[in-house]
Design brief:
It contains 12 helices and 13 strands. It has 372 residues and is an alpha/beta fold. Strands 2-3-1-4-5-6 form a 6-stranded mixed beta sheet, sandwiched between helices. Strands 8-7-9 form a 3-stranded antiparallel beta sheet. The chain has a two-stranded antiparallel sheet with strand order 10-11.
């Protein structure tokens, strides 16, 4: 209680708030497991812990790929027991239906486990266009990167398969590779593992790309692709269409990162803005139900401090934050609606270097100078 006489001193924290970026990139795997007790959502702190628990099935196979890649990540497994009908077509359709349901359950993962999936794998089931649309729906709601596969190896058939599909968060692959223990496996699992590894390297790893890096856990490429640096080639043509590949160039490397979305042609841009949006939304929760006069300036100051931090760490190259008068009318303010306008440009990544070399004959006199 303040003194009635004399001097009272009160202190309040008006410093800008540091926006904390959530760097926990939990991986969700959707698939089948022979153990019925593992059905639906299960959380595991590591790949080794998950492998101890699961039985045979597509989830275990994916976990073996992740282990070979050497990543360390938290996991959410959404599993089901495969159907046992005698008719093959009916069995396949039933299993796809179960996979779709197991994928939808991921929307409840944060409430059930406390962790929100930021990567999604659905090996064995993610190679059908109908499944693609559902996986995109779940991935977009979660703001998660997900892997899609194509069961075609011809360029024209790959182009036909992805026609009219648009996504800014999908990593699309078609190749099979040989794991380090010589087992033939789909490339997608290793690309997702590589992306997780890149992001885990630092607090701002989300601003990096997985492309043009050595793929850990892969011994060789089964479905090889023509790649000639500096020349038109199949690898570059497919990459421009949104396909990610494994190429052999001073080791087995990833080559891709493009998307099928015209507004976000690079997945690294989508991930940067997803992270910015999620960080802001989480940090501004405290401002809700507070008086405008007490809170608005601090919200803007916090945002500017956050963006300056992103510039300092090479995530963005410029920004502006404003409270535009044309949007914040008397009516909107009376309703408690505040509009803040953000403009930001991410730091671009180099995708092409052109060296112009000219053969000339204007330096011959230098030889004579050396003799004098």
């Amino acid at each position: 209680m303040s003194a009635k006489y004399g001097i009272n001193i009160e202190i309040y924290n008006q410093a800008t708030k540091a926006y904390t970026i959530n760097n926990t990139r939990t991986l969700a795997i959707v698939g089948d497991d022979v153990k019925k007790e593992n059905e639906w959502l299960k959380y595991y702190p590591s790949i080794d812990e998950a492998l101890k628990s699961v039985g045979n099935g597509s989830i275990k196979d994916a976990l073996e790929d992740l282990k070979a890649s050497g990543i360390n990540t938290t996991l959410i497994l959404s599993s089901f027991v495969k159907d046992t009908q005698e008719d093959k077509n009916q069995r396949q359709q039933a299993n796809i239906g179960k996979a779709l349901l197991a994928m939808e359950v991921l929307l409840q993962a944060e409430q059930a486990t406390g962790f929100k999936p930021k990567f999604i794998l659905a090996p064995t089931y993610n190679n059908q266009r109908g499944f693609w649309e559902e996986l995109k729906k779940v991935g977009d709601k979660l703001g998660a990167v997900y892997a899609l596969e194509i069961l075609e190896i011809q360029e024209d058939k790959i182009n036909a398969f992805i026609k009219d599909f648009q996504s800014k968060r999908a990593i699309i692959t078609y190749q099979m590779v040989q794991r380090s223990d010589l087992v033939i496996r789909p490339l997608a699992n290793f690309i997702i593992a590589q992306y997780i590894k890149v992001m885990n390297q630092s607090e701002y790893g989300f601003a990096q790309t997985f492309s043009n890096r050595i793929i850990d856990g892969v011994a060789s490429i089964v479905d090889t692709v023509e790649f000639i640096s500096g020349e038109d080639c199949r690898a570059d043509r497919l990459r421009s269409k949104g396909i990610t590949m494994a190429i052999s160039d001073d080791g087995i490397r990833s080559w891709g990162g493009e998307t099928t979305d015209p507004d976000f042609p690079s997945i690294h841009s989508a991930v940067i803005f997803d992270t910015i949006i999620e960080t802001i939304a989480k940090s501004q929760k405290e401002a809700i139900d507070k008086q405008v006069s007490d809170t608005l300036k601090k919200v803007v100051d916090d945002l500017e401090a956050f963006y300056r931090k992103l510039i300092a760490n090479n995530v963005i190259i410029g920004f502006s934050v404003s409270v535009p008068e044309n949007l914040n009318t008397n009516e909107s303010i009376a309703e408690g609606k505040i509009y803040i306008e953000h403009k930001a440009q991410e730091t671009p990544i180099i995708k092409n270097i052109t060296n112009k070399i000219y053969k000339v004959d204007s330096y011959g006199a230098e030889l004579v100078k050396e003799l004098n």
